[in-house]
Amino acid sequence: MTAGVDLGAPQIQAIRSDDDVVRVRQLVRTVAVAAKLSLVDQTKLVTAASELARNTLIYGGGGSAEVASVDDGRRRGVRIVFADSGPGIPDLDLALTDGYTTGGGLGLGLSGARRLVDDFDVVTAVGEGTRITITKWSR
Amino acid sequence: MERVPVLKIGDILLVSIQVDMSDQTAVTLQEDLAERIVATGCHGVIIDITALDIVDSFVGRMLSTIASISRVLDAETVVVGMRPAVAITLVELGLSLNGIRTALNVERGMELIAAARADEWVLTDGDEDAETTATT
């Protein structure tokens, strides 16, 4: 491998069951190791991915995670896109508040995941679905 | 679905989580443990998470719930073997693991449980035989 590393095609994991959440974690771990993220950064990214994959399943009614190795010219990183066609998030600010939950959880999934990654972007429309993109860069 | 084994060692139940648990596996473990505490009369539970490379909010909540359930069933829970990267991530995630005792490894966890039980005995003795204790 030389400069202009082949970053490979994004890998897609469907999220339809509990076990798929485990598969998302494993896929993200593999890509994060290949992208040479530090152990702490790998751990943070896999944890964030676990939270968001669970949200996709529980609140979005299932969907997918697309995991890709990325490069901005200075550093490498891992980008994950979680997409569902669920009910969407009516009040995003509220949903991003620590402790707020409409399910039975701790309300840390979305807000906690945001703290664990470098870039966090949510596109959501009521009745259409939610698309969350996160990126973690190597330091 | 995979099931996490619960081992009885003396007066302690030892759970060593070796798989990447699905949420359902975690919930089943919670129920299995409650049953085993009652069935065995054990007073201590050690959960070894050395092999876990992440603890997310779901597993964190499971650990807190197990600690609460065992307390109600007269058993102490100690979580041991947390990796440094997991600890850093947990704090940043905002998970405080309320009410959970932790120790660095199984051995220290066992000492912690023994000490906690010893304290309780002293307290109980003091309550019941206040006079005897005072004179001795």
UniProtKB/TrEMBL annotation, chain A:
Limits of the Histidine kinase/HSP90-like ATPase domain: 40-139
Entry-linked Pfam families: HATPase_c (PF02518)
Stored SUPFAM superfamilies: ATPase domain of HSP90 chaperone/DNA topoisomerase II/histidine kinase
Transmembrane parts of this sequence: none
Coiled coil (UniProt feature): none
Protein name listed in UniProt: Anti-sigma regulatory factor
